[in-house]
Amino acid sequence: MMNPSKLIGCRDFPCSDVDTRAFSVPNVELDPGKIRVFMIAEAPPENPQDYFYGKGKPFFLDTTLKAFSDAGCPVASMQDILNRGVYVTTAVKCGKTGYSVSLSTVNTCAELLLEKELSLFPNLRAYLLMGDLAIKAFNQVSTRTTGKRLIPSGPTYKIRKAKYSYNDRPVYPSYLMTGKSYLIEKSKQKMIAEDIKSALAQV
Q1: Which residues contact 132 (CB under 8 A, 6 or more apart)?
Q2: Residues 6+ apart with CB under 8 A from 1
Q3: H or E element that contains 18
Q4: 128 and 176 Cβ atoms separated by less than 8 Å
Q5: What domains are there in the chain, each with its CATH number?
Q6: How far apart are CA 196 and CA 3, in angstroms?
Q7: pTM of the full predicted structure?
Q8: Cys-Cys with 35: which of 47, 87, 137, 138 at CB 3.0–4.6 Å?
Q9: pLDDT tens for residues 153-195?
Q10: Residues 37-48: b if buried by 16+ CB within 10 A, e if exposed
């Protein structure tokens, strides 16, 4: 068993455009060998209680459960998602202070934290990149480990139509699934569900 929050940490918090008080890494006991899908959202919420692994039904988890349900995978908790072999984390580990996060911060977090987090799971079969920050962070990991950028620039609805792979495993660039569900366009909800369904088919 393993707890990612005990293995992934930031020593000196070098990034200046994020809220370090909202630093979050999944605090959960799990068997890394049973994780097949690595799902990356953008950044943790301002309130830690709203994080995916918060107690009760945190805000971030609410829309995530709906996305899985829309994909034909009914789940009622984060533990249910983990039991399906899906690990959910964020590209940036500190909270956003504005609408966006600088590329420098995304790259720093990818190099220092996300790359290590990915290495904790030996049996991954698919990667889900939920939102622009997740795509940018994964591109940084890919550039560092393979020497080339994986996902091209462009609107998500266009780039998701192509096939991508990392370590010979499919990668699905998609849309951010956190936030108020009624603010997520129906067309994007449909594409999110399609991408989750495709990733789960690899499990």
Answers
A1: 42, 156, 176
A2: 29, 30, 31
A3: strand 18-19
A4: no
A5: 4-200 (3.40.470.10)
A6: 24
A7: 0.96
A8: 87
A9: 999 999 999 999 999 999 999 999 886 554 578 899 999 999 9
A10: bbbbbbbbbeeb
